[in-house]
C-alpha cells in the first residue's frame, strides 16, 4: 500500500480523478448519502485548490482510502454545515486547528470487504494515523471532525487522544458528533510494514516514514 498527501495539482497524474470516483462509489453508492454531485464523481464546495488530501492506494494502483484536510481559517464542513454539533461553541478558526472530513477506508475491489463498514480495517487505522500526523505537520495542534459515533472506536484503536465537542445529534438517520483529536497523539512509528508514503507540494510536510 502507498499513501500520498498533497493538494490536487501536486498529486500523481490521474489520482485526483480516481479519488473523485472512489468517493462517489463509497459515499453515494455504498453508504447511500444523498449528495448533489454529478454522476460518477463526488466533490463539494470544500474541494478547493488549498485542500489537502491523504489517499491510500493499493499495490494494484486502486484507491482504497481517503481523507480530506481543511484549514479552519477558511470555510469548512463543520463550521458551514454542522455548527450545531459544537453545542453552542463558536466554530474554530485558527491555523492550529484543521478539519478532517470525507474519511473512507474500504477496498471496493476486495471480496471480503464488509457490506458498509470500514472503521476497523488495517487500512482505516493506518490512514487515520497518517492523516492526523499530516495535519500536525501542517501546523495543527488539534483536528476537528464531523463523524458517526462509531469512529470513536477507531480513534481508540489508533491510540489517538480525542473527546467530543458536544452530544451526538441524529442527522439523516445517523448519530453524528463533532470530535476533537490531539495531533501530538498520532504515533506513526507503529505503522505497519509494507507501506510507502509520499508527500508533495507546499501544503505537505516531509516524507512519511
Descriptive keywords:
disordered C terminus; 4 helices; 21% helix; 9-stranded mixed sheet; alpha+beta; 209 residues; 26% strand; Aminopeptidase
Summarize the structure.
With 209 residues, the protein is an alpha+beta fold. Helix content is 21%, strand content 26%. The chain has a single domain, classed as Aminopeptidase.
Total number of strands: 9
The CATH architecture would be 3-Layer(aba) Sandwich
- Count every helix, treating DSSP H or I runs of 4 or more residues as helices: 4
Low-confidence stretches: 201-209
CATH topology: Aminopeptidase
- The CATH class is Alpha Beta
First-last Cα distance: 13 Å
SSE class: alpha+beta
N-to-C order of helices and strands: EHEEHEHEHEEEE
Descriptive report:
The chain has 209 residues and is an alpha+beta fold. It has one domain (2-199): 3-Layer(aba) Sandwich (Aminopeptidase). Helices cover 21% and strands 26% of the residues. The chain has helices spanning 15-30, 77-81, 122-137, 151-157; strands at residues 2-6, 52-57, 63-71, 97-104, 142-148, 162-164, 169-171, 174-182, 196-199. Strands 1, 2, 3, 4, 5, 6, 7, 8 and 9 form a nine-stranded mixed sheet that branches. Residues 201-209 have low confidence and may be disordered.
Amino acid at each position: 500500500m502507498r499513501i500520498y498527501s498533497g493538494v490536487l495539482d501536486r498529486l500523481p497524474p490521474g489520482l485526483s480523478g480516481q479519488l473523485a470516483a472512489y468517493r462517489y462509489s463509497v459515499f453515494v453508492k455504498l453508504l447511500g448519502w444523498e449528495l448533489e454531485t454529478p454522476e460518477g464523481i463526488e466533490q463539494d464546495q470544500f474541494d478547493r485548490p488549498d485542500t489537502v488530501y491523504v489517499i491510500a492506494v493499493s499495490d494494484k494502483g486502486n484507491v482504497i482510502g481517503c481523507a480530506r484536510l481543511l484549514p479552519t481559517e477558511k470555510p469548512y464542513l463543520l463550521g458551514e454545515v454542522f455548527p450545531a454539533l459544537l453545542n453552542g461553541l463558536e466554530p474554530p478558526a485558527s491555523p492550529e486547528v484543521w478539519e478532517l472530513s470525507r474519511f473512507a477506508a474500504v477496498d471496493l475491489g476486495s471480496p471480503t470487504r464488509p457490506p458498509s463498514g470500514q472503521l476497523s480495517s488495517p487500512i482505516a487505522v493506518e490512514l487515520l494515523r497518517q492523516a492526523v500526523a499530516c495535519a500536525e505537520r501542517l501546523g495543527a495542534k488539534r483536528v476537528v471532525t464531523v463523524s458517526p459515533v462509531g469512529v470513536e472506536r477507531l480513534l481508540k484503536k489508533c491510540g489517538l487522544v480525542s473527546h467530543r465537542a458536544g452530544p451526538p445529534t441524529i442527522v439523516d438517520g445517523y448519530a453524528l458528533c463533532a470530535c476533537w483529536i490531539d495531533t501530538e497523539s498520532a504515533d506513526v512509528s507503529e505503522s505497519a510494514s509494507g507501506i510507502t508514503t509520499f508527500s508533495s507540494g507546499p501544503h505537505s510536510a516531509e516524507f512519511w516514514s
